[in-house]
Known about the structure:
Elements: E1 2-8, H1 15-25, E2 31-34, H2 43-46, E3 49-64, H3 74-78, E4 84-87, H4 89-96, H5 107-111, H6 117-128, E5 134-137, H7 147-151, E6 157-172, E7 175-182, H8 189-206, E8 211-215, H9 222-228, E9 233-238, H10 242-257, E10 262-267, H11 273-285, E11 289-294, H12 298-305, H13 310-313, H14 318-332
Parallel strand pairs: 1-8, 1-9, 2-7, 2-8, 9-10, 10-11
Antiparallel strand pairs: 3-6, 4-5, 6-7
This protein binds iron/sulfur cluster (2 copies).
Amino acid sequence: MNELVIISGKGGTGKTSIVASFAALAGGQAVLADCDVDAADLHLLLWPDVIERHDFYSGKEPSIDRARCTGCGKCMEVCRFGAIVHADDKHRDEVRHLSSACRNCSFCLRSCPQRTNSDIQAMMEASAASATPVYAVDPLACEGCGVCAAFCPAEAIDLQPRLCGEWMVSQTRHGLMVHAKLGIAAENSGKLVSTVRHQARQQAEQADIDRVIIDGSPGTGCPVIASITGASRALIVTEPTLSGCHDLQRVAELTRHFDVPASVCVNKANLNPGISDEIASAARELGLGFAGTIRYDAAVTQAQLHNRAVVETASAGSAEDIRTLWNTLIEQR
Ligand code: SF4
Ligand code: SF4
């Protein structure tokens, strides 16, 4: 299985537009994987029709059983993240009818923009003075460490798998695509990236396709490590700026560390030909392949406005550069 992963030192380098063009150039002979799960946007160019949806669970979250809880407050005392809150029974009764999903954490009260901090403080103090103390978990603050469950004298806290998002298999006009949505404040996007990659490989195998094109995460953190590990080749997309030069070195270090062959391309190269040439030299000095340049071209923005990849709407300019880049990468494998 050939896995080509497109990455960059930072967001906004044009990585996703290039992936969408590669998808078009692959002519249905590649499965796409959007592994930029923290800011997924490949769907904006490919308009996928979702075929399958799957929940993504990662880590644990505590759930307090009100029937067993004695209201001793130990959980609040031991939680280092301030994630156990003293909720207000009255408030819960008032808002419960709004949503059956309400977990009585009182986060809405504490973060509501209509209230001032002093109002919130007064509310919390009043709630703490309640004759019937009610403790709840703030899901946005909870780190899932399990300390509250370990210390609860009434064994009233159960740890359950935490729902962190979902991943999907979709049909696009250029073939199958696996993508994901990370929940608000949900963590472990590295694990979700690994899930998306694994599923994309499986889809490719089932469809007898031997290529996966991955829109990787930007930067050098856990999600990008999960994007590149074991890939056949990484294409590092950079821009002709000083920060582009610096980012290239950091990303190159990462690909070298994980033993992934890497090539470099400079997007919008004609905006600064001098630095573009410097990046090409630096890439060779770093032992990377230099795959080519893409010129700045208003056709890219026009294509984006029409939810298309530039190679679908233009034949010259940047579209021609991307075709050349694709052919170079096919040769490099
Ligand atoms: S430690 Fe257990 S019993 Fe005490 S308030 Fe927390 S959940 Fe309830
Ligand atoms: S699992 Fe950890 S972070 Fe979450 S509420 Fe319990 S002690 Fe706090």
